[in-house]
């Protein structure tokens, strides 16, 4: 007699339900990735929020990460784009990234989530990637400055997005053709690596003269 994950007997040979397959298919690596990237996002959001408060108190305050004309957190914090929804963007990050930390911690503690939950998380991280992409374009081509803490949040967001997407493809929450499922199973690291590489290349080429001067 086999037992399922909540300790109830399961008849030997009975086909597993979709939920049972989802429970068995959640790797510890994904749990750790969500917990760590969420923590990185919380850290970045917290530092930016505190520096924003200090900047409001003293317009001449210079954040520690304002290192040169390009890597200038203060320039980014003073921009209109830094409060896209009418309040400082990192305040949204504090809440959103904290949720991801809780999801990762729950998985490490043995929690398992339904397919609809994973799809909701995928949708949330997709919004995060879209918002971060917009902020990246604004930083590179409108504000003309980079914030290192923002860069940390960008990388954390895209890592969690691709990790959740790969999990949903592998478990069937996102219906996909066999080759797509096989790709995410074998090469799940490739999309985030390519994504980060594209961002790095954009940053490098945008200020090529500065980096090489």
UniProtKB/TrEMBL annotation:
Residue ranges occupied by any Vitamin K epoxide reductase domain in the UniProt entry: 27-168
SMART domains the UniProt entry points to: VKc
Top-rank taxon, per record: Bacteria
Pfam families on file: VKOR
TM stretches of this protein: 30-48, 91-109, 116-137, 143-166, 187-208
Keyword Transmembrane helix: yes
Compartmental location: Membrane
Membrane topology, record value: Multi-pass membrane protein
Alphabetic keyword roster: Disulfide bond, Membrane, Oxidoreductase, Quinone, Redox-active center, Transmembrane, Transmembrane helix
CC terms in the record's Gene Ontology section: membrane
Molecular function terms from GO: oxidoreductase activity; quinone binding
Family: Belongs to the VKOR family.
Name this protein carries in UniProt: Vitamin K epoxide reductase domain-containing protein
Protein source organism: Streptomyces subrutilus
Lineage start: Bacteria, Bacillati, Actinomycetota, Actinomycetes, Kitasatosporales
């Amino acid at each position: 007699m086999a037992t399922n994950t909540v300790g109830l007997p399961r008849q030997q040979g009975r086909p597993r339900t979709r939920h049972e397959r989802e429970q068995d298919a959640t790797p510890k690596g994904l749990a750790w990735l969500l917990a760590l990237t969420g923590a990185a996002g919380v850290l970045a959001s917290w530092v930016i929020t505190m520096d924003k408060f200090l900047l409001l108190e003293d317009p001449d305050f210079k954040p520690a990460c304002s290192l040169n004309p390009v890597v200038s957190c203060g320039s980014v914090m003073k921009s209109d784009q830094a409060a896209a929804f009418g309040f400082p963007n990192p305040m949204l990050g504090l809440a959103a990234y904290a949720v991801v930390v809780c999801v990762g911690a729950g998985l490490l503690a043995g929690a398992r989530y339904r397919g609809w939950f994973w799809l909701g998380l995928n949708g949330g991280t997709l919004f995060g990637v879209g918002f971060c992409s917009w902020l990246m374009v604004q930083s590179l081509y409108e504000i003309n400055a980079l914030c290192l803490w923002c860069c940390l949040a960008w990388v954390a967001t895209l890592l969690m997005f691709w990790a959740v997407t790969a999990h949903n493809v592998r478990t069937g929450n996102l219906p996909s053709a066999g080759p797509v499922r096989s790709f995410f199973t074998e090469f799940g690291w490739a999309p985030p690596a390519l994504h980060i590489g594209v961002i790095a290349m954009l940053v490098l080429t945008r200020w090529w003269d500065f980096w090489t001067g």
